[in-house]
Amino acid sequence: MNIVILTGAGISAESGLGTFRDAGGLWARFRIEDVATPEAYARDPARVHAFYAMRRHEAAKAGPNAAHHAIARLEADPRHRVTLITQNVDALHEAAGSRPLHMHGTLAGALCAACGHRWTAPLAMDETTPCPACDRTTSRPDVVWFGEVPRHLDEIDAALSAADLFVAIGTSGEVYPAAGFVELAAAAGAETLELNLEPTSSRFDRRLTGPATRTVPDWVETLSGPAA
């Protein structure tokens, strides 16, 4: 079976990483316009770097939970071909053994805004950090900000076109283009399934509600059997 999985912040919430749009979430504490746009970086790079340094430190303390491990088991099942797409910038999927497509980049990466060079970000990166390639102090987090184009879209489109099953896990369904993946998969003939604390829309064929650490392992067990 060709399975395409999209994960959002909800899958990492039980690992201690905050979500974005809930009460008390990141966007309740910080304005998108101040920390997550190219304009914010141009206006106040120190503030943007401080925000991502905070997130980098939080992510470094977190570990994958049962939902991440369940997806990794499904990827290893030779009966299925799994494409894992994540909106998350943490590395918890990798820590569980998965190979995700990070459509919004990663906290672990740094990018030179001048020459485009990429490297592993130090925990203490700030606006004075020089690029290892050109030595200019134009370093930025290697993440996709609001107003920028997400990554891997051609690969994602091909996977959605060939999917037998599309599954969205822990995502709000509010941020495009990811919010439109369910329609693209359905138009290609795929069954669609949402796993979330609460349903986000009526666009899915089926829904399983509850915490990801319960619903994801239970769902994977229906496809691959119980964990060894």
Automatic annotation (TrEMBL):
It catalyses: N(6)-succinyl-L-lysyl-[protein] + NAD(+) + H2O = 2''-O-succinyl-ADP-D-ribose + nicotinamide + L-lysyl-[protein]; N(6)-acetyl-L-lysyl-[protein] + NAD(+) + H2O = 2''-O-acetyl-ADP-D-ribose + nicotinamide + L-lysyl-[protein]. Its main location: cytoplasm. NAD(+) binds at residues 8-27, 87-90, 170-172, 212. Substrate binds at Y52, R55. It is found in: Cytoplasm. Zn(2+) binds at C112, C115, C131, C134. GO terms for molecular function: histone deacetylase activity, NAD-dependent; metal ion binding; NAD+ binding; protein-malonyllysine demalonylase activity; protein-succinyllysine desuccinylase activity. Transmembrane segments: none annotated. Residues 1-226 form the Deacetylase sirtuin-type domain. Keywords: Cytoplasm, Metal-binding, NAD, Transferase, Zinc. Its EC number is 2.3.1.286. The keyword Cytoplasm applies. InterPro entries: DHS-like_NAD/FAD-binding_dom, NAD-dep_sirtuin_deacylases, Sirtuin, Sirtuin_cat_small_dom_sf, Sirtuin_class_III, Ssirtuin_cat_dom. SUPFAM superfamilies: DHS-like NAD/FAD-binding domain. The active site is at H104 (proton acceptor). GO terms for cellular component: cytoplasm. 2 residues (Tyr-52 and Arg-55) present in a large hydrophobic pocket are probably involved in substrate specificity. They are important for desuccinylation activity, but dispensable for deacetylation activity. Belongs to the sirtuin family. Class III subfamily. PANTHER family: NAD-DEPENDENT PROTEIN DEACYLASE, NAD-DEPENDENT PROTEIN DEACYLASE SIRTUIN-5, MITOCHONDRIAL-RELATED. NAD-dependent lysine deacetylase and desuccinylase that specifically removes acetyl and succinyl groups on target proteins. Modulates the activities of several proteins which are inactive in their acylated form. This is NAD-dependent protein deacylase. The gene is cobB.
